[in-house]
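In keeping with the milestone schedule agreed at the kick-off meeting, the structural modelling team has produced records for the first pair of proteins. Each record is given below as a sequence line and a structure-token line. The laboratory manager (R.T.) confirmed that both were archived under the project's standard naming scheme.
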Amino acid sequence: MDVILREVRDSDLPVFFVQMQDPEAVRMAAFTAEDPSDSARFHAHWARIRATPGVVNRTVAAASDGTVVGHAAVYGPPEEREVTYWIGREFWGRGAATAALRQLLAVVPERPLHARAAADNPGSLRVLHKCGFHPAGTDRGFANARGEEIDEVLLTLPA
């Protein structure tokens, strides 16, 4: 799927909110908000990250018609910069996440960059691998979406 990255617009937020209500997407992402259906918290979170210097946040849109596909970002202090992305489930398996992450990596030249993914999320692990990330370790963390601790893979895109 051919996608573009652009600045996040206020009109994108309702689409992101709906995408984050998909039970399967939430389960696969695992490390989500405690209550993804809490609109006030969602909007407060987005207001905070959009106002935070150093956060590079982009909307992922279909190149053909501008449909909002998801979002991608880089955040964190210089020594711990991390990538994150969310692609609406209706676009899974079409290369949107890989294309978006590759474009984001071109926008943010800093290295190393880090990423995390649930160990049982093969799609996200495949995207990160295709974009040059390498496993750097494992961890366990509480996954709100699953209500339990799960294994996660820590990855690094080296300098």
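The second protein of the pair:
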Amino acid sequence: MATRTDAPTRREQILKEAARLFAERGFHGVGVDEIGAAVGISGPGLYRHFAGKDAMLAELLVGISGRLLTGGKRRLAESDGGDPEVLLDSLIEGHIDFALDDRPLITLHDRELDRLRDSDRKLVRQLQRQYVELWVEAVREVYPGLVEQPARAAVHAVFGLLNSTPHLGRSGGLPGREATAGLLHRMARGAFEAA
């Protein structure tokens, strides 16, 4: 059985490098030969794993939206009706992990979502809406005086805050992962308090 500590598969390596390159130079600024070279295979060798760049982009953007939703649902199930504060903190921590560990995907989403086929773009939006609603419910449990629309706006604002990590500079320029995560967490909670 595979675990998170196992070496990434070739497919995962390709996706990681594609995300990095697409984020750095844009979807149209990267060829399959460059992606292949980044993982040590020929460009045409990529076609054993993906139908093309469009398929890579779709898997990256649909995949991260699905992983965020699945992670949120898992955190909700693990809370099992427990302390709403703990659930909200857990959701924030999970999103911070994404925002710090998958920074190229945030850039890619911002720049390239419109390049997806309509069906893939609709799926990304559907997964994102479900993820937002999971958060809205959690936020309203902690802040019962917050009605639905302002809660939803606050969730989107916190996502904007957390997803700003690509603009924080290179990883070496941050104050360290733990300190950055702590700062982002305090700011997210502060934003919900202010709402």
